[in-house]
Amino acid sequence: MHTKTMEGLIGARTNMNMMNTPMRVYKEARRKGDLDTMERAMGYANECSDRAEEYKEEADEGMKKDTEETRKIAKEQREEAIQKCRDEREKLEKKIEENRNGDANTDTVIISEEGKVLLKDSTGLDDTVSAETKTDAVREPVTYTKTGEPVSAEQSISTSISVSV
């Protein structure tokens, strides 16, 4: 909050509270019929009211400055966020370009002799045929029962399935 805003609000409130005393004196003098005291009290009340109005204007100026500063800060933050996004996008584009050029570090998998033997024994493949093509061709669709036992495709076709929701 801007200092002018705080000063204006506090000043206006103080002068409005100070206006209560002359108004109380005015009402008391009116009851008594004392015109001089009534005029004097009303003069003090008007002074307090005028000062409260001046402080109100000062508070309005301070609030305008507050909004200007807030807008300026928000604009700077938006610009920083936009620049940060641009930087991140440029970095990402560089990484993508490096990956396309093959400059990026790649991982290689080396299978030990024991692993090759185990793979050969479990799939029955020789070294010239890839594991993916052979295993895809050998495998048949399998359905499992509730207990986890495999059932051949021929048995699962004859079985009826009941689903209730």
Give a written overview of the molecule.
It is a single chain. With 165 residues, this protein is mostly helical. 73% of the residues lie in helices and 2% in strands. It is built from 6 helices and 2 strands. It has helices spanning 3-18, 20-32, 35-101, 113-123, 131-138, 153-158; strands spanning 143-144, 150-151. It has a two-stranded antiparallel sheet with strand order 1-2. Helix 1 packs antiparallel against helix 3 (35-101). The two termini are 61 Å apart. The mean pLDDT is 82.
In short:
This protein is mostly helical and 165 residues long. It contains six helices and two strands. A two-stranded antiparallel sheet has the order 1-2.
Please report the number of helical segments. 6
Specify the structural class.
Answer: mainly alpha
Low-confidence stretches: none
Largest sheet: 2 strands, antiparallel
Number of strands: 2
Q: Give the overall average pLDDT.
A: 82
Termini Cα gap = 61 Å
Order of helices and strands: HHHHHEEH
Q: In order across it, which strands form the biggest sheet?
A: 1-2
The best one-word shape is elongated
Radius of gyration: 44 Å
Beta-strand proportion: under 5%
Helicity range? over 70%
Question: What are the main properties of this structure?
Answer:
165 residues, mainly alpha, two-stranded antiparallel ribbon, 2 strands, elongated
